[in-house]
Amino acid sequence: MTASAVRTGIALLRAGRPVRIDGPAPTAVLSVETATAELLPLLDPDRRAKLMISGERAAALNLANERDAADPAAPVVIGHEDWLDAETALAIADPGKDLDRAPVGPLHPVAPDCAETGRAALDLARAAGLLPALWLLDPKAADVAISIDDIARERKQPTVEIVARAKLPLDDMPPSQIVAFRASDDGQEHVALVVGAFGGQPPLVRLHSECLTGDVFGSLKCDCGPQLKEALHIIGKAGGGVLLYLRQEGRGIGLINKIRAYSLQDRGLDTVDANQRLGFADDERDYGHAAAMLRALGIDEVRLLTNNPSKVAGLEAAGITVVERVPHQMPTNPHNADYLATKRKKSGHLLA
After folding, report:
1. Is 283 an active-site residue?
2. Pick the catalytic residue: 98, 123, 285, 300?
3. Exposure letters 56-95 (e unless 16+ CB within 10 A, then b)
């Protein structure tokens, strides 16, 4: 099985189609979020499908204390006295509906047939930018199969290919190039801005995760837009460096889920609690793609422009040496002060 099969699996889940996960306990999975109410009965005529959610989402539903497993990230399979229909399953999966619906239940977590297969399936859903909530179906319900080894391998050590590069004149900046990459595991397109020249010393590098609301629309809820602009200014002033623009919207949960998290923040949750209530970890990013991009550019040592120790650890775990961490803090505003305080207190960002 190749990386293209993993990308096919992601595409099928996004399109509301089933995918078979091959492992110790093969199963077909179907996204709760994208499956139609009409398709589910066709794939599950005997009404035997079970619902699997992430451990984080189970904890938000107060189901975690009913499980034997101690790992909070372990998948949870929900049984029910009656068959769960598509509307009820989505109400369980989507926290935006938590305060708008009557209680659902009783819900009975049961031991998954194989937690390893469940983890791989939830990883595939997260890579697709979908809520980590899946129908578990008979393996014969899906034609396309992906092994848990393929998913694990691509997640652990993704590769990238340079697809195109071109000159990109930037205002008040040294001569620059933009380099476009495509990732092996999920097919995402990332870019690098290679600015000026950095001689023989390790270049100044910024890993910037895509933020449509902050980078493009100038949202005041975060500090992403100012960080992006200031990073380019610092790199230009230094005479050169590299900015990687990574398709990791919402700390890796995707654009739609980030907007869902914003909606939860409107109801009083902080940025960490909102992600966890959606069923994700505090931060779903990994930096394997960033490391692969740097290696493709011939870079194996960097001076990293960041306040996030996880970026340093992530790059070094992926084989890139960080010789120096360069602080990169922006002023707060009334709209993002709590957000930045949460990043400092709960996510370990090195902010004053």
Report:
1. yes
2. 285
3. bbbbbbebbeebebeeeebbbbbebeeebebebbbbbbbb
- Return the amino acid letter for 176: S
Active site residue 267: no
pLDDT in tens, 99-128: 666 666 656 666 677 788 888 999 899 889
Tally of domains in the chain:
2
Cis? peptide before 106, omega within 30° of 0: yes
Instruction: Quote the percentage of the chain above a pLDDT of 90.
Output: 43
pLDDT at 64: 58
**Claim to verify: residue 163 and residue 143 sit in the same structural domain:** no
pLDDT band at 1 (very low <50, low <70, confident <90, very high): very low
Q: Which of 208, 214, 229, 233 is nearest to 335 (CA)?
A: 214
pTM comes to 0.85
The Cα 205–Cα 192 span in angstroms is: 10
Which of 126, 283, 300, 338 is the catalytic position?
283
For residue 200, give the CATH number of its domain. 3.40.50.10990
Q: Are residue 147 and residue 242 in the same domain, yes or no?
A: no
pLDDT exceeds cutoff 90 at 54: no
301 - beta bridge partners? Answer: 321
Q: Which domain holds residue 91?
A: 3-154
Domain CATH for 9: 3.90.870.10
- Residue ending a domain, choose from 138, 154, 170: 154
